[in-house]
Design goal:
alpha/beta, nine-stranded mixed sheet, 10 helices, 27% helix, ATP-binding, kinase, nucleotide-binding, Ribokinase
Length: 380
């Protein structure tokens, strides 16, 4: 069963200036998003995406991306995982064979894909999420959280007979976390060939975000479709620890690992910045022109082949309660700034400010709205 979890009218109030949505990549005047709604198997209500928009003012009052009345933003499309994160707060990780008590526990929406989509929505940028959830309470939890964040769910697939992906997040008292993932609908029941309407969404995006908590063959189809249309693709290295297929990497514009992932994927040390540069060069040799590296408390850096790295120091938080979702927030905020046309240095700075979500618990609940990021940057 493929349908939208909620009617888009519940979370988008769109006012269309033209009868057809066109972009610089459109080859005809036909609206690429007006799909065959007469197909009885297609229950999704499809709308042209975001010529101008406003989010439910009771939840996310909009902030104009541009003062230009002719500016029609191309959407951020996030393809990836959706999880219910089961949080348990503990003083420390248990030793082998040991049982310890948690101080508290709760279940919140998460998953790298859903996190990144929610961040885009909260930053007031038109965002689509393409992923899968089950017909269960966890699926409803994730769908509601995405809707509340202002994310368009037209391309959310609800799968019967398979549970929604979930994760156990063990949050220690120092704010660090350890995570165990159960794939569920993130890894099962994907069609071998993605529907045309999903690929058309990708081809008409402003930027596409991928991660590795869904099958590589899905990411590969999406990345190829984006590449064929000239849409930039960012691949977050987080998720499966298996080698990344060369075929997928060949369609990626920006590869974004953290320091640990960089070391694992290259089998090279990353203890010094010189070693990091040598490890990044290995990806340049494989054809990846840009590497966006998350360095935790050391900040971040963007490595563009043939240029000097652009470094961004960390913007220190007053307190660190939970690092869950910080990397996803950083990557998504960078993507939003990138598609809005900010310079590379400005993108890094914007993303660093958004990553201050570590000051609150949970991934999606802690993500900042655009006003908070703007206010923080103006205060620095």
């Amino acid at each position: 069963m493929r349908t939208a979890a909620f009617s888009p009218s519940n979370h988008w109030n769109a006012t269309f200036r033209n009868s057809h949505f066109t972009t610089q990549r459109s080859k005809t005047n036909a609206d690429p998003f007006l799909f065959n709604t007469k197909n009885p198997l297609n229950h999704r209500q499809v709308h042209p995406p975001f010529p101008s928009f406003s989010i439910n003012p009771s939840k996310n009052p909009p902030i104009p991306i541009s003062q230009d009345p002719n500016f029609h933003p191309l959407p951020l499309v996030v393809v990836g995982s959706a999880n219910a994160d089961i949080y348990v707060e503990i003083e420390r990780l248990p030793n082998e064979g040991e049982t310890i008590s948690a101080t508290s526990g709760q279940t919140l929406a998460g998953g790298k894909g859903a996190n990144q989509a929610a961040c885009g929505g909260k930053l007031r940028y038109p965002t689509y999420f393409l992923g899968q959830v089950g017909e269960d309470a966890h699926g409803k939890l994730v769908s509601q959280a995405l809707e509340d964040s202002g994310v368009n769910l037209d391309h959310l697939n609800i799968v019967s007979g398979t549970p929604t992906g979930h994760a156990v997040v063990m949050l220690q008292s120092d704010g660090q976390n350890s995570i165990i993932i159960i794939g569920g609908t993130n890894m099962c029941s994907w069609p071998e060939v993605l529907p045309d309407e999903d690929l058309e969404l990708v081809k008409n995006a402003g930027i596409v975000l991928l991660q590795r908590e869904i099958p590589d063959f899905v990411n590969n189809q999406v990345a190829k479709a984006a590449r064929s249309a000239g849409v930039p693709v960012i691949l977050d290295a987080g998720g499966m620890d298996t080698p990344i297929p060369r075929e997928l990497l060949s369609s990626v514009d920006i590869f974004s690992p953290n320091e640990t992932e960089l070391a694992r994927l290259t089998a090279m040390p990353t203890e010094s910045f010189e070693q990091i540069c040598q490890a990044v060069a290995k990806f340049h040799e494989m054809g990846i022109k840009q590497v966006l590296l998350k360095l935790g408390d050391k900040g971040s850096a963007l490595f563009i082949e043939g240029e000097n790295p652009i470094k961004q120091p960390i913007i220190k938080a007053k307190k660190v309660l939970d690092t869950t979702g910080a990397g996803d927030t950083f990557t998504a905020a960078f993507a939003v700034a990138h598609v809005e046309g900010k310079s590379k240095a400005e993108c890094l700075r914007f993303a660093a400010a958004a990553a201050l979500c570590v000051q609150a618990k949970g991934a999606i609940p802690s993500m900042p709205v655009r006003e908070s990021v703007s206010d923080l940057l103006q205060s620095l």
